[in-house]
Write a structure and sequence with these properties.
alpha+beta; Alpha-Beta Plaits; 4-stranded antiparallel sheet; 2 domains; two-stranded antiparallel sheet
């Protein structure tokens, strides 16, 4: 028998999950991360739908005497979301990006499950916690590292490996913090170097990059902001 009040209640749960996913996705979107509005909204909505189906979709009448384990489908969400999170993690030279975005997708799946179970307060508090971890806490972490600007990944092409010494000299001269450095030989008189750098202001980084670009035998392939 069709239970309209129950269907409306379950529909509200899906809408709440989608709205919460949209909130977290908005933060990822405005900061230019690959998994943004649509991805987080779909993860939250899908998790809520699986939770709802697990609890109500296979039990016949809501009060029927049928032995159903509502956690069986929901439990698979935890492992299933891992594949999507793995797709958000990219290795670019020495840099591993997307860990934070993958974690936000994983947490968003839990929020969707909470909304699907009708635990609106828990879902809302969890969403607020996720947003705080992605935004204010990230700013605090950057200050603890002694900078207000994010880490920048610099990829260079060099004719001689010795040119790396000139590059690091410029970075030190501009008082930039140098993180990991990785080099790779591509062929005869062809090398690639990946450097993680951090500065107090974007203008300092820009000045150092411009100075490096003027070096003979050194070409800048790309500069990108780390996750």
């Amino acid at each position: 028998m069709f239970d309209l009040p129950l269907q409306l209640d379950l529909s509200v749960r899906l809408i709440v999950a989608a709205a919460l996913g949209l909130a977290v996705g908005f933060e990822r979107e405005i900061h230019g991360h690959p998994a943004g509005l649509r991805t987080h909204m779909l993860v939250a909505s899908g998790s809520a739908l699986f939770t709802v189906l697990s609890a109500y979709g296979f039990s016949g009448e809501p009060n029927a005497a049928v032995v159903v384990d509502p956690t069986r489908i929901a439990a698979q969400i935890v492992s299933g979301i891992g594949f999507l999170g793995a797709g958000a993690i990219l290795k670019d030279g020495i840099v591993i990006r997307g860990l934070t975005t993958a974690a936000s997708l994983w947490a968003m799946a839990a929020v969707g499950m909470a909304a699907g179970a009708g635990e609106y307060i828990i879902a809302g508090v969890a969403t607020a916690t996720i947003l705080v971890s992605l935004w204010p806490i990230n700013a605090l972490a950057e200050r603890l590292h002694g900078t207000t600007t994010p880490e920048v990944q610099l990829r260079l092409s060099m004719e001689r490996l010795e040119s790396l010494g000139n590059v690091t000299g410029i970075l030190v001269g501009h008082r930039l913090e140098i993180g990991q450095i990785s080099t790779q030989r591509l062929g005869k008189s062809s090398y690639r170097a990946d450097l993680a750098i951090r500065g107090r202001t974007p203008s300092v980084i820009t000045g150092a990059v411009a100075a490096i670009d003027e070096l003979d035998g050194v070409d800048i392939i790309s500069t990108s902001q780390a996750d």
